[in-house]
Amino acid sequence: CRLLEEQELNRVTGAHVGAVHPFVRGVNKRFLDQRILTQDTVSFNTGDMSKGLLVPKEGFVKALGGQATVANIAVSEDGEDIDNLASELGIARNDAKFLLDAPDGVKYYKAYRGHVTVKDNPSLGSDDASHHIFWLRALVRHAGDTTSIPVVPPEWLGQLANAQDATKFAREEALKAYVRTGKAQEVPEAPPEVGDDFIEQQLDEVVRENQDAVDKLIVDVKRRDKLLAFLMGQTMKKTKGALQPQQVRAKLLERLESGQISASK
Question: Residue 67: which of 11, 19, 23, 3 has the closest Cα?
């Protein structure tokens, strides 16, 4: 069992990191934690990282159509240790399990946490608690093995987590480069203010360079969300995170709705 690399994830599911939802195509096995069945509602993303969906539990289970295996996923023989660590650190239970499973996860996290700006007592599962964990999870994901994780000092990862004015894409790229090269990277800063002309020029080039993908996806209305996510990802890569995702999304939606993005003739 392993985490997929970004390009492999996109090839298998058609989705980008952070946008894989329970009904994504290309996945043969799905596992459903039994705790979900004790809830009234289930929330999950829709393949669009800016949108989520909240549905009744019964509708969610019915939509899966028996394709998911119900299991006690979050419980291990170290269940008591997981609960104790979650309580000690003020983090969600699944995050505590992640720290226990990661190489030197607890030790690294405690060192790294001191360099991250958060509230003193984040509630379990809150944005402040998971804000720590997100970047540590990203580090483990990009490192892929135990020997690479110590390459990134906890203080640098803390600076990366604190650079909230920079785009998430730019920060992930800096983290991947640090892990890949073993050399310290500059922590990204807030992207410069750019005019509409620059944004429109970048979108023109992205659409032109990916016309084949546009041709395949735009003919099916149901796949336009996938097209939007794909073009957003390509634009962020092209500009190396120099644009705000909200700007890119708004411009792409405007183009799609007005017919400016269309299949080649």
Answer: 23
Cα separation of 172 and 18, whole Å? Answer: 12
Strands 30-33 and 41-45: unpaired
Angle in degrees, 0-180, between the axes of helices 245-258 and 224-238, rounded to the nearest 10: 130
Q: What is the pLDDT of residue 227?
A: 80
Encoding tokens for residue 201?
């020029």
Give the integer Cα–Cα distance in Å for 230 and 76.
Answer: 37
Local structure of residue 148 (DSSP, 8 states)? T
Q: How far is CA 136 from CA 104, 105, 236, in A?
A: 11, 8, 22
Supply 232's token pair. 């957003």
Please say whether the dihedral angle defined by the alpha carbons of residues 97, 143, 52 and 189, taken in this order, is positive or negative. positive
Quick one: pLDDT band at residue 155, thresholds 50, 70, 90?
Answer: very high
Phi first, then psi: give them for residue 53, nearest 5 degrees.
-140, 135
pLDDT digit string (tens) for 84-115? 888 888 888 888 888 888 778 888 888 888 88
